[in-house]
Amino acid sequence: MGDTPSAGPWRHARKVPRNDAPILDPALDTTKTEAPTAAQGERRAALVVEDLSKEYENHRAVSGLSFRVSEGEILGLVGPNGAGKTTTLRSIVGVLPIQKGRVVVCGHDLGAHEVEAKSRLAWIPDDPQPFDTLTVLEHLRFSAALYGMREWKESAERLLERFELTEKRDSLGGELSRGMRQKLAFCMAWIHEPGLVLMDEPLSGLDPRAIRSAKDEIRRLAQTGTAVVLSSHQLELIQELADRILIIDRGQKRFEGTLNEARASLALGEDQSLEDIFLSATDPGPYVERAPVGTQGS
Amino acid sequence: MFGHPALRLLFWMKLRGGLRLQVRKLRRPSSWIFLIIGAVLVLGWIGLMAFNGGGSAQALVPGDVLRFTVDIGLVVLVTLTLVGAFQYRGLYLPKEEIELAFSAPLERTQLVRYRLGTGLFRSVFAAILFGFLTARRMPHAGFAFVGTFLVMMTVPILGQGVALLLGEGENRLARIARRAPLKLFSGVLGACVGLGVVALMLSDGEEVTKIFSEEGALARLANQPWLRALLLPVAPWGRAITSSSWSEFLPWFALCAGIWIVLHEVTVRARIDYRELSLATSAEVAKRISMARRGGWIGNKAGVGKQSWTSGTPWFFGRGGFGAIAWLETTSMLRRARGTLILSGLLLTLLVVITRNMGGISTKDPELAAKQSMMFGTVVISLLGTAYLCAGLKFDFRGRLEQMDLVKTWPLAPWRIFLATVLPEVLLVSTFLVAAMLARAIWSGLFHPALVAAVLFQPLVVLTWVALDNAVFLHSPVRYVPGQESALQNMGRSILLMLLRGLVLLLAVAVALAPAAGVGFLLHYGLETTKEMAIAVAAGVGWLGLLAVDCGLVWAGGRILGRFDVARDRGV
């Protein structure tokens, strides 16, 4: 009665590791069209966003946004409230339809090959909502099924252990605390070993131990070649984890690059933090004590 | 049926999880008691619906009129479904599913198939129930059951199809529909149907028979060409339900089944990007469910309009703490319950119209009959109005469960907080009902001292009702929400609480009226005063008695509020 997925990409999502998936359109292999930065090295692009725009009824949330993330890279997405961060992320993962522009995930255009692109990404929203009546383990079983994984139990158990959820494996989703829900969301996102993970405020609600553990996991994920886009207001987290940062304000890109590049472009001192950079980029004013000329960073 | 294998798995796991949750909640004996009461009530209700009045309609109503009545019912059902589709555009998925589903590698058709599958599964119970309901009232029980079942399985698909069409971001019709007062329309339509049924129930049997007869009003209406044209789209289902033989039934059944298949496939395969409005719909429904679970009424919590009626609500009760709480509730009511208030006004108007010539028992004395009618109408308006408006408005603790943390910090005695919270609602409801009573009296041109008594008693009656309802709610803030887990237990629990409330209400009325009756009896038979004087004094004593009862209820409400535990009493 149901649809039998013929050659649905979710079937082989796991068999084809990360970015080795065949690129459907050679033109989308953007690694060849743009010179990689030092941070990106020779790595291929896991995410390419070109001229992304999103308009709601009475305001433009995102306007002509372009950026790219290489495999194994962590990009920190920062911006003031209402800057368009969540809209950007939700458009990239396909929750919101793309009105204008193009999103390419691991070589697959989201507009033209939606299912293929989605089978290579994972999304952790800011307030993950588990199913009230499913146990933690059943959540992972469902998540694995979504991505066509037949052998899921071993990965699930491993993830539960890594996120200290083993004891909660039979707890219902509705019984989990905010932190536990967040951990479960991590496990659900990790289980199919995606090529790109997008996270919106991933550490909110976690206790210090869980934060440390989550940060280690994010690093470990990036080391295995997965690209990570991390949106957060916790600037110290971004500063600590991100290889590059993307600052957006009122739906537009204010800056994209490494911290040092940001300091240089904004004429800030080497000791200036991401917070200073952020305030300077989004509202240059009295917040930043500018470094004297000649002492600017690289 | 459920699209992608993962979605099929999700369906079964959710089903199993729901049952598991039910079992987990049955650890305490009280849960078993509530479950049994709930189950008995539901089964009893179904039994009553299914087996009561069997064969009455087919015996009394001619075939054409029966078909016409069924068609009218179907048109109302379809209209309400379409109005619902306009209100909830796109593909509704629960909040825990929607982000996951939209970001997962799933085809849109698979999601629609899953949604339709789960929707139809949920409709099966209602379909069986309505099938039973119509089965014994139509010429052939089996055909009626199957026909009704098909209707109940087709209507959700129609609703979903239209909702998807309207869910397209750029859909102009959807934009126009958004501005239309659809909630009001569906409310008025539902209320008209409900009041029509009430009117039929209150009418005498002879009148009803006449309406449904071959020469009656319905038969005449059924012959109107425009109405025939209007009913044409639902005719196949109407014919199937009212069929009396296989030869009549089979072609209509085949047509209906064919339409079901086509509609299902067209809905599934429609190339529509429904994501944006689906997200909005999902968020809206999640908000309403959450509010309903916390005790707020689903209908009266719509967002505050941009242009509110009331730019500044007067501080009727002073500028102190008591006045501030009362002002808060008044403002909430006036700004958030516009729809409910307008609908209440319309319903009361209809109630006035319906009760205009009702209740005159005496056939010999027209004057006496008019007085009886006045008394009857006033009592009906008072009781039905109190029950309906108090259930609908709920701008008191029942709608403030989310802010109980804040309420508990207010620097006032609990009984004062309790009174200040319920008072605005009591006064508003009383004003509505007194206006309706007076309007009815003016229309009928008949005044009687009993009307004055009714007007004076009305605020106290409403206060009794609201105070008791709030006290019970604060004591056990769990409400029955359709579709929630453990619905049977909660229903059983709600019924028990309702019975308790009824008992306390009766006790309160008895405590208030017993001295009044005693005084009246003593005055008339002991001191031999006139009857009018005895009644007037007794009414005064009764009024004071009810006031004393209300003071007691407010005090008790305050005590219960004082003991309210925000950590335990979360209303879920």
Describe the structure.
The complex is a heterodimer of chains A (298) and B (572). Chain A has 298 residues and is of the alpha/beta class. Chain A has a domain at 9-126 and 179-257: P-loop containing nucleotide triphosphate hydrolases (Rossmann fold). In chain A, 29% of the residues lie in helices and 20% in strands. Chain A has nine helices and ten strands. The longest helix of chain A has 16 residues, at 208-223. Chain A is globular and about 55 Å long. With 572 residues, chain B is mostly helical. Chain B folds into three domains: 1-52; 55-289, no CATH class; 314-563, no CATH class. Chain B contains 23 helices and no strands. Chain B has helices spanning 5-24, 29-51, 56-60, 63-87, 95-103, 108-135, 141-167, 172-179, 182-202, 205-212, 217-222, 225-231, 235-242, 246-269, 275-293, 321-336, 338-355, 366-393, 404-407, 414-444, 449-475, 487-526, 531-563. In chain B, helix 4 packs across helix 13 (235-242) and helix 16 (321-336) packs across helix 20. The longest helix of chain B is centred in the C-terminal third of the chain and has 40 residues, at 487-526. Chain B is globular, with a radius of gyration of 27 Å. Residues 297-310 of chain B have low confidence and may be disordered. Chains A and B meet through helix 2, strand 6 and helix 3 of A and helix 1, helix 5, helix 6 and helix 15 of B.
Would you kindly provide a brief summary of this structure?
The complex is a heterodimer of chains A (298) and B (572). Chain A is of the alpha/beta class.
